[in-house]
Description:
Elements: H1 2-30, H2 34-39, E1 43-51, E2 57-59, E3 65-70, E4 77-78, E5 83-87, H3 92-139, H4 145-191, E6 194-196, E7 201-204, E8 213-214, E9 221-224, E10 230-236, E11 248-253, E12 261-268, E13 273-274, H5 282-286, E14 289-299, E15 308-314
Antiparallel strand pairs: 1-10, 1-15, 2-9, 3-5, 3-8, 4-7, 5-6, 7-9, 10-14, 11-12, 11-15, 12-14, 13-14
Keywords: Signal
InterPro entries: Single_hybrid_motif
Protein name: Efflux RND transporter periplasmic adaptor subunit
Amino acid sequence: xxxxxxxxxLILILGSLAYACSSDKKENENSKTNEQILQEVNEVKAIxxxxxxxxxxxxxxxxxxxxxxLFVQEGDSVQKDQILFELEYGNxxxxxxxxxxxxxxxxxxxxxxxxxxAKAEIYARELKEKYETSKLLVAKNAETKEKLETxxxxxxxxxxxLRGLRxxxxxxKLTESExxxxxxxxxxxxxxxxxxxxxxxxxxxxxxxxGQSIGSSQELGKIINIENxxxxxxxxxxxxxxxxxxxxxxxxPVGRKDTLGQGTIFYxxxxxSNKSILYESANExxxxxxxxxxxxxxxxxxxxxxAKVDCSIRIR
Length: 316
């Protein structure tokens, strides 16, 4: 019996010592300041979103009309300046034909005037030579002055006719240039009926349909370049000053531990801002401000655009 009592006393003593040690440990942990706790943090968590490195391009038409031909559909990959769809031209093609016909008529007239000028120049040279001959004969008293004056008058009249033809051709050339401008304007109007891709990428949110009537500048879809996406993330203001350019980041699916990729911080906003729609609840979006950062992926570039991700940033 005495032995049992002694054993119980020993157990009680050991239990008291263990409790005392545990209490001392908890007191030591509780005695740490927030600053000391933050100093021991080696990794910062941030919530982010996968976004294209370049902003998306809007698909729209410069003019109103009805879609006559549709060459793409949502999900297609397109190159810059690739034709996406065409609108009905209406009378625009007839305007080009009419302006072209007028230009061809002007060119034919100008060709005729140019031929008349060439003939007039030959005739003017002949009259000049005839006047020069009469002038020599008058000097030798072999020709009358009346004949000389007549030859001079004929030559000068022809020169006047020649100057008139040249002025007429010059005016016609100006008219020809103006008509070419009219053709260019008509062709530009037709080009407005052809909608091309503003950038290289993948078509998304396409609403254009064959036969659909659309307005000018109406948004009909987007073109997103999904090559080499980046991560836009937000770091709680508590760790804002720990963020530096060049820090390494591990990218993971939200709420999971597997790794999607790795990256490097290449931009950190110098100004704190309110939390964005990355945070789902009202309390999350209002309790603290954040520092927005951008992460360039070093590995794992095949990520889904607009997907939310968890970002683990090594700060020490």
